[in-house]
Specification:
The protein is α+β, with helices and mostly antiparallel strands and 576 residues long. The chain has 15 helices and 17 strands.
Length: 576
């Protein structure tokens, strides 16, 4: 008995388990990677939209402040007041300043200061350096040449760590009609106004946003320590310089957007907590599902392997029984399509073996009968007696030449018949054999018999069973021409058919007969004709020739007889 680990069932079992595990693993990995990628793209897109949205809000707010400062700087009353120091104009400017303060609660102060130090503001006590020539004040000159917002007011001399004192300053130059400088408009916006826009960004538990200007100075960060800690500031500067996008190693998204109208860059850092949570949940789900599937596979795989190999085991057992000689067996045609095909072919093979054994028995009987027939035709005493009688008769008439030719023909006839005991000969020798036979018969029947032999010389060397023509010719002479009133003729030819087979035709114009006699006496059982019919149709020769050819070449070949009473007979012998 074969070891189980070498059996087909064992191999199917482990191949099934291996393929199942690989399938589950690959499918889970593909789904995990695919879903993670989709979630990551959505998370990245969501974070980018949040950062961009925060930047848009800041831009819109800065634009609105620029509009307010520009309106105040270009107000005719502001220009006239700074140019003429008109008290009436002062009231109008201060009223405009109040309207600006009312329009935005985050505007802490609005200051209009002339180049000679003249000031109009909502604040009573200003903490700012002034002189009669403001062009000597660096912050004033910087305010003239830039309207870009800056953290802390230009008038604040010391940076405080108290965010409540921080402001964003926005300046706008005031010019007269000739474009000459008259002064500067300053808007101080509370830091909280900017902070409120950016603190609400959803960037994850570890995410944050910061603003850095073109001088790499921190403008905004929710952690105030970044404004005084140089190491932390360098970290933010390095992050603002790196390529934006998703960092797989740090599992974070860095996204930058430049704020229009400023020299600020808003940098958002998202920790993508949702992505990490979804990945963990996916991993847990896939592990649980994979474990359940693995248990199911381990439980069902032995049953599946056994169900697949059971029909093959039945087939193997049936083969062993056939090998032992038991042919009365069949196997159920069940299982997969391939096994059903094997079972079907096995059953057909067993049936065919049975039929072959029967055919072998039949052919063995036919061969034995053929051997007897050949022996009989080779030493036919009746033919030999008639031939010798003819030779004696010719000798009595002292017809020496005919005696010699007939004796030679008889000798050559028997030499070709015997041919060293071989069962096969060539077409050339077979035609020579029947030719010698006809020479002898011609001497016996004289003018009663005339004949003609022809064949294609190209067929001379083809190998065929021997003594297949002589029985036909004998039948044609004895039961055709001899029974006819008057002389008769016999034609023997050999050639190829359209299909390429070799065909012999033996045609006589003798008495003929009714072929139904053969069919009636042979019968459906395939038994030989009764002796009376056999004797009438030339003995056992024709039947044995037909059986021999079918034995050698198959049922599609053999002897075909066409005849009718008074119209002669035509016999066709077809071989491959």
């Amino acid at each position: 008995m074969k070891p189980f680990f070498r059996s087909l069932q064992f191999r199917i079992l482990w191949i099934y388990i291996l393929i199942s595990i690989l399938t589950v693993g690959i499918t889970g990995s593909v789904l995990y990677v695919g879903i993670s990628r989709v979630v990551m793209n959505q998370s990245v897109e969501s974070s980018q939209m949040a950062i961009a949205k925060g930047g848009t809000y800041v831009e819109m707010y800065i634009d609105r402040l620029n509009v307010l400062s520009t309106m105040l700087a270009r107000n005719p009353e502001t220009v006239r007041t700074l140019a003429e120091k008109n008290k009436t104009g002062e009231r109008d400017v201060l009223e405009f300043i109040q309207n600006v303060l009312i329009s935005d609660p985050f505007i802490q102060s609005v200051i209009v200061i002339g180049k000679d130090g003249y000031v109009l503001s909502n604040e009573q006590k200003l903490n700012m350096r002034r002189s009669s020539d403001m062009m000597e004040e660096p912050w004033y000159v910087a305010a003239i040449h830039s309207n870009i917002p800056a953290l802390t007011s230009a008038r604040m001399q010391k940076f405080s760590m108290d965010k409540d004192n921080w402001v964003i300053s926005l300046s706008q130059e005031v010019k007269d009609e000739r474009g000459q400088n008259l002064g500067v408009v300053l808007l101080d916006i509370k830091y909280k106004g900017l902070e409120d826009y950016l603190n609400g960004l959803e960037l994850g538990s570890k995410g944050y946003a910061f603003i850095i200007n073109s001088n790499h100075e921190i403008v905004y960060h929710k952690d105030v320590s970044y404004f005084v800690d140089g190491v932390k500031q360098k970290q933010l500067i390095a992050m603002s310089r790196q390529a934006q996008g998703y960092d797989l190693k740090e599992n974070r998204l860095v996204y930058q957007t430049h704020l229009k109208g400023t020299d600020w860059t808003l940098v958002g850092v998202s920790s993508l907590d949702g992505l990490q949570q979804i990945r963990m949940q996916l991993m847990k789900s896939f592990i649980m599902v994979g474990a359940a599937l693995l248990i199911l596979i381990l439980v069902t795989s032995p049953w599946i392997a056994k169900s697949m190999t059971r029909p093959i085991h039945r087939l193997e057992q049936a083969m062993q029984q056939v090998e032992s000689g038991l042919l009365a067996i069949s196997v159920p045609e069940t299982g997969v399509t391939e096994v059903q095909g094997l079972a079907r072919h096995f059953n057909s093979m067993v049936l065919e073996i049975r039929q072959l054994l029967k055919d072998i028995e039949t052919k063995e009987r036919a061969l034995r009968l053929h051997e007897l027939s050949v022996l009989h035709s080779q030493i036919n005493p009746h033919f030999l007696y008639n031939t010798l009688d003819t030779i004696v008769w010719m000798a009595e008439f002292q017809d020496t030449e005919r005696v010699i030719s007939t004796t030679k023909a008889l000798a050559e006839f028997f030499q070709l018949s015997l041919s060293g005991g071989e069962e096969f000969t060539t077409i050339e020798k077979e035609m020579a054999h029947v030719s010698k036979y006809l020479i002898i018969q011609k001497e016996r029947y004289g003018d009663k018999l005339s004949y003609e032999l022809r064949y294609d010389p190209a067929l001379s060397d083809l190998i065929i069973p021997k003594i297949i023509l002589q029985p036909m010719v004998e039948n044609a002479i004895y039961h055709g021409i001899r029974e006819k009133n008057g002389p008769g003729s016999l034609e023997i030819s050999c050639g190829r058919t359209v299909e390429g087979s070799v065909q012999f035709i033996i045609k006589d114009d003798g008495a003929g007969f009714d072929p139904a006699i053969l069919e009636a006496d042979t019968g459906a059982s395939g038994q030989e004709p009764v002796p009376q019919v056999r004797s009438k149709l030339g003995g056992i020769g024709i039947h044995n020739v037909d059986e021999r050819l079918k034995l050698y070449y198959g049922q599609n070949y053999g002897v075909t007889i066409t005849s009718a009473p008074g119209q002669g007979t035509e016999v066709k012998i077809v071989i491959p």
